[in-house]
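Re: the 673-residue chain
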Amino acid sequence: MKKRFFPTFVAIVIFAVLYVYANKYEIEPIPNAGEDNPVLLCDFRPSDVKSITWKKGTPDEIKVECKTEEAKTSYTLVKPHQWRGDESEIGGLLRNFEDFNSERIIAVNASDSSIYGISTQSQQLHVELATKTYIFTLGSNNPIGNSVYFMRDGDPTIYLVKGVISPAFNKTFNELRAKNIFPEDFTGVNSVELFNGTDTFKMQKPTGEEWKIVEPKICKADSTEVSTVIFSTHDIKAARFVQDEWDSKQKDEKAEELDKFGFEKPFCKVSFSENASKSWQFIVGKEENGERYVRRSDSRTVYAVPSSILTVLDKTFNNLRTKDLPVVDKKDVKKVSLRSNGTVCEIEPASPTWKCNGKDVDEPKLNAMFEALRSNRVKDFFPTAETEARGLSKPGDAERIEFVTASGTTSFVFGKGEATHISILIEGRDEIFSVPIQMHESFKALYDSVKPQPKTENATSTPASISATTVTPVAVDAVATSSEIKPAVTEEKPVEEAQPATVDAVATSSEIKPAVTEEKPVEEAQPAAVDAVATSSEIKPAVTEEKPVEEAQPAAVDAVATSTEIKPAVTEEKPVEEAQPAAVDAVATSTELKPAVTEEKAVEEAQPAAVDAVTTSTELKPAVIEEKPVEEAQPAAVDAVATSTEIKPAVTEEKPVQGVSSETVEGAGSANN
C-alpha cells in the first residue's frame, strides 16, 4: 500500500496559520492591576475633517472650516471673525485624535458626570467629518497622574485619557489665527521700494535680467540683499495682535489718532509689486519694550513683532548695491600688466600658455589671480576724500594690475592693507573699495614669479689669465739684502686667508699690508709696493697682444742708483694686455735665480722667484709657464733697496681698471747698509 504525504502537509500549514491568527488577533490583552483594556474613542485623519468648533455652553464659539485640495489642507476661521487659520496650530491638535484611545474606564453608565467635571458648561470640541460628527467633552483633571476625564457624545461611559489632549480643547481665537502678515506668494515680485527713515531706494528686476537699483542712481544691485528684503518681510510673524480691524472703536477713530503706533512717521516702509498688477506695503512704526508696531497698508490690524527681526530692513545704498568687482573674463584678455616697485611686467596669452618676456608664466598663479578677482566681494565703500588715509594719494606710484581687452583697460590700484582687507581704486570710479587681502596676495605671487631676477656674479673664479680686478698685488718691504718670498696663494689657502707675499727685512722693520683680505677687497687693496734704485729703469712689457700672459716674460728691471717713478699698471688708454708691469727694484748683491714653479715642484713648495740684481740691468726668468697657469704661479719676488718710492695704485674703488689714478705709498723709510 502506497503512502500519500501531501494532504498531511497542507493540513499542517493551515493549522499553523490559524494558530498565529488566533494568538495575535483573537486574544484580548490582560490589563495590569488597576487598568482596563484601552478603548478606541475615535480614528480619523486631519484630511477627513470638514470643520472644528469649540464650544463652552455659551453663544460664543470658535469655528474653523477645513479644506483639502491636492493633499494640502487649509484652515479658515469663520467665527467669531473671518481670518486665516494657523495651519501648524490646527493641524497639530487634530493629530492628537488619530488612533485616540482611553487609558481607563471610570464609569460605564455614570448617573452624575458632574463629579468628574463634565457638565453643560464644560469645554466641548465638535469635529465634523463627511459622514459623522464627533462631540468630545473634557472633564476635570484626575487627582492622581497626568490624566483627565473624558466623554464622547452618545456614550454614557466616563473615560480617563492622557492629559496631553487638554490643550486641544482650550484654544483662543488669537491662538488659532495665522500669525504671518503676508500669506501671499512673493516669488513673482519684480519691484521693491524701500524707505529706511531718511532715504528711499528703488530696485527693479526686468524680465530675464538681474536686479538693479534705479534710484537714487542707477547701478547693479546685490541680488542677495534684495532677496533678503523681500522674503524676510514675507516671513515676518506677529508676536501678538495689538488691534484688529473689526474693532468697532477703531473704525470710528480718525487717522491722526493712529499715530500712537508711529505709522504717520514710520521707522521704515517697504513696498512690493508684481508686474504692476499686485502690490503690497509693509509699514513699521515706533518701538516699545523691545517690540515694534507693524501693519499692512491695506488693513488696520496692528501687530507687535520683535524689533530684532526688523534689522533686515535697515539698509543703506551701499548695502543694496552689488559687492562684485568688475568682471574680467580671462579668455577676453589681450594683456595683463603688473606693476610693483617701479617695475612693470607684461603677460600676454600665447600658445599653449601665457608668457612674460618670452618665458612661460606659472599658469596656476595666473588662474588664482583671475579667481580672486571673480570671487572676492567688496566689504566696504569709502569716498575719494579718504585716498590719503587709504594709502592711495599717489596712485601713479602704487602697485597695480591692468587688464587689457578689446573693449578697453580695467585697472586696479592697491592701497593700504588692514588685517584681512586692502583698499583699492578702480580707475574711472569715484570711490574706494575695501576687498579681501587675497586679491593682493594673488597679485604679488604672480608678480614675484615673473619679475626680472637680478644677475649674480660668481665670487669664486679661476680665470686662465690675470684680470686687473682679481690681481693680488705683492707687498714689498725695502731692505738691503735678498729675501725669501712666501707663497701668497696655495690650493689649501685661498686668497681671502692667504699671507701676502712677504719680504724678510734686515736693516729696518717694515709692516706688510695684506693685498686682499675678506674685509679688504681688491679695489681697496694696497698696490704692489715697489722700491726703486738710484737710476732710471726700463720696464719691459710683461704682456702684449702677441704674447699672452701664459708665455710672457716677467717684468724685467734695469736699475741703477737713482730714484725711479713707477708707472701705473693699467690706465684707460692702456688696457691690461698692453700695460706696463709692476716696476721692480734691484739690490746690490748677486742672487741666484731659482725657478718659481716647475712640474715637479708645486706652488706650495716652490722657491719664490729670486732676483739676480747688480748695478746693471737684470733679466727675470718667467714666473708663469704654459704648463703652470697663473692661478698656481708664484708671484714675482722682488728685493729692494733702502730708498723711498712713490707707489701708484693700479685699481681703487673709485678708479676702475680703465681709469686708474695714483696714490702715494710710503716705502721702507731710509737707507740701511
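The chain has a mean pLDDT of 73.
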